[in-house]
Design brief:
CATH architecture: 2-Layer Sandwich
Strand content: 5-15%
Number of helices: 2
Cofactor: [3Fe-4S] cluster
GO molecular function, one term: metal ion binding
Radius of gyration: 17 Å
Number of strands: 3
CATH class: Alpha Beta
Protein name: Ferredoxin
CATH topology: Alpha-Beta Plaits
Keywords: 3Fe-4S, Electron transport, Iron, Iron-sulfur, Metal-binding, Transport
Organism: Actinomadura litoris
Length: about 80
């Protein structure tokens, strides 16, 4: 699972770290400056809890699948020549 922190939206409440300190770290002033990062499968629920606690919605969960559970790539479908 990947998480992205929008540093421009973070206003330094620090709730992400307060509720999910195993995943999120904030600066001395409470700002989350982590950017985009991978979260271990064991911490998925914790990461979601911290993201949902953000009153500014500055934390987005990008991929909520366990590692290795992504769909196999598919070949592109041929375009129809009938129009």
């Amino acid at each position: 699972m990947r998480v992205r922190v929008d540093q421009g939206r973070c206003l330094g409440h620090g709730l992400c770290e307060a509720l999910a300190g195993d995943v999120y770290q904030v600066t001395e002033t409470g700002y989350n400056e982590m950017g985009e990062f991978e979260v271990a499968d064991a911490l998925r629920d914790v990461a979601r809890k911290g993201a949902s606690a953000c009153p500014e919605r500055a934390i987005a969960v990008l991929g909520d699948e366990p590692a290795g559970q992504h769909d196999e790539p598919r070949a592109p479908r041929p375009r129809s020549t009938d129009r």
